[in-house]
Amino acid sequence: MSFIVITFKIFLILFMLTFRRIYAFHKRNHISNQNKWAVLIAGSTEWENYRHQADVCHAYHIVRRHGIPRENIITMMYDDIARNERNPFPGKIFNKPGGPNVYKGVHIDYRGKDVSVQNFLNVLLGNAEGMKGIGSGKVLKSGPNDHVFIYFTDHGDVGLIQLPDWFITYHQLLKALENMKNKNMYRKLLFFMEACHSGSMFQQLPKNISIYATTAADAHQSSYSIYCEEKNLPCLGDQYSISWMESINYNDINYMTLDHQFEIVKKLTFTTSTVQKFGDYNIGSMTVADFIGNKPNHRKHHEKKKHYDKEVTIPSREADFHYLHKQLNETTPGSTKQKHVAESISKLFLDMKFVKEKTKLIVTILTGTENDANEVLNTKSLPEKQHGECFHNAMNILIKECYKTETQREHGLHHSQKILNLCSQPQLSQEGIINAIKNACNEVEKDEVVIDEDEECWMGQSLCNIFCTAKGVHNNEKMRGQCINEKCLCN
Questions:
Q1: Catalytic position from the list 196, 228, 235, 402
Q2: 392-395, long-range: CB within 8 Å, 24+ apart, which pairs?
Q3: Which domain holds residue 379?
């Protein structure tokens, strides 16, 4: 028998063994659509955050179109966009320019104040008793033979994600997921997260609890908004979310694995944020249909997305500023409306600076020297399991006791990295950190917070320009901003 024949037979045997393993794996994990569950949550409110509810509405239609029963889908969104007085298309929400009305036909289980941290955790943990008399009362009723898909979209920062009433830390989320596993609430779980710094939420995700998670960004990056150029509308979508949903819309998900989808999304977002994956990587060889539903997609898979790669993307935490800047340019120069928009922009910047200075004060109280304070302020540490309780408690005290307005609280969350850094210092106790926060928060402000145009350009070039444009409206002159030698100069 020739060497070629022997080699071919060995190759054939190895191929058949590999094929049988793959077939056995997929047969073992294949389940009917009746055993698939989806939890879809948009954690934001207000018109400027339009895109999050648009993302969730689009996701709802995807899981329904692919066969997950309505009774197995739990949708949480504030529902203040479709009929918002600022919506030029009453009763409609769009997730891309010229796209369909994704709001139509969406069954919302929890809206308004029912979209809360506690209710979200109750839904995940199947706590029906805790949801009695709230919304639809629906919670996950999945079992050990079911697949669960969770999609979350909103703002986030290092170690936390936001909801309308409060925030969830990585410590809380991981505890909830581990409890789901301990309660045999799933066989496999897929988690997609759209938020700035979303990679920080899964740094400590165990690899042995059958969860595969992907995120819009790594632990220290912003995620990005897209479709932000439509007149009278904020950004319509988020880049990572649009990417994973379009990958489903234009591919046969009965053959597309989760790893393949991840590579598609990674390629579509590589110029902005770095999508990440965490958990049990073996699940990556399963198909998207194993979680989203295996009903055939009737779209033409060869149909091309139009203009997607040419779209302007904006860091998500700057989206509010860019929308107001767009309004500033679209209103009549010198009008009362334009001055009102400029006032709103200026207030946002003042709140940003107030929070920045308050955070620096807390760090300085604890570290004692400017050099040590700067190290804590500038270090980019990652969430560790042993620091979870300190971080969770310190952030709760900081936001409750330091910040009085909604925008201050939102910008306060943007400094979570500093609190995480403090909790990581071996010489500092949780009690000491919390006491320093209380002392700094109770200190009476001696001077009104002001922004000098030539101070350190902490806001970045894009926001510097928006700040100066608003300042020009106040001064009845046209101004632009530029960061030069770390100074924001208006001219």
A1: 196
A2: 392/169, 392/171, 392/172, 393/430, 393/434, 394/419, 394/422, 394/423, 394/430, 394/433, 394/434, 394/437, 395/159, 395/160, 395/167, 395/169, 395/419
A3: 346-442
